[in-house]
Design goal:
- With 122 residues, the protein is mainly α.
- The chain has helices spanning 5-13, 16-29, 34-45, 49-57, 62-68, 93-109, 114-117, and strands spanning 81-82, 85-86.
- The chain has a single domain (5-113), classed as Helicase, Ruva Protein, domain 3 (Orthogonal Bundle).
- It is 59% helix and 3% strand.
- Strand 1 (81-82) and strand 2 (85-86) form a beta hairpin.
- Helix 2 runs parallel beside helix 6.
- It is globular, with a radius of gyration of 14 Å.
- Pfam families: DUF2200 (PF09966).
- InterPro entries: SP1917_dom_sf (IPR023204), UCP033199 (IPR014580).
Length: 122
């Protein structure tokens, strides 16, 4: 499935703060914690707890949010389908990064072990 330019633009303008409550609801319904969610966000973006809260408060667009992030060098290991798109085939970097986050949240909600979510080597 090809990602359209309109889709990429819509994702870029979407705010992290508008999606964050949905992430929290999704993972808490499945018995996971906000602390685990923040650990996943920190792993992907490098943001600490204070920065995450500030970005929510500032209502940063995903474009600004990911421009400020230090993407984990192992993020390319996040593969699979999310929202009908195969992550590794998305050619727009920002859209791919947003889908990385979506996939990590999805894995957290599905009960995957944290070391697997964070792509830790054994």
């Amino acid at each position: 499935m090809k990602v359209s330019a309109e889709h990429n633009a819509r994702i870029a303008k979407m705010t992290f703060s508008s999606v964050y409550p949905h992430y929290v609801t999704k993972i808490e319904k499945k018995g996971r914690t906000k602390q685990e969610l923040h650990l996943v966000i920190k792993w992907l973006t490098g943001f600490n707890e204070i920065e995450i809260q500030q970005h929510i408060k500032d209502k940063l667009s995903f474009e600004t949010f990911f421009n400020k992030a230090s993407i984990n060098p192992n993020a390319h290991l996040i593969k699979g389908v999310i929202c009908g798109y195969r992550i590794e085939e998305i050619d727009n970097i920002l859209t791919q990064q947003v889908r990385y986050l979506d996939k990590l949240v999805d894995e957290l909600a599905k009960g995957r072990k944290m070391e697997k979510i964070l792509r830790e080597e054994n």
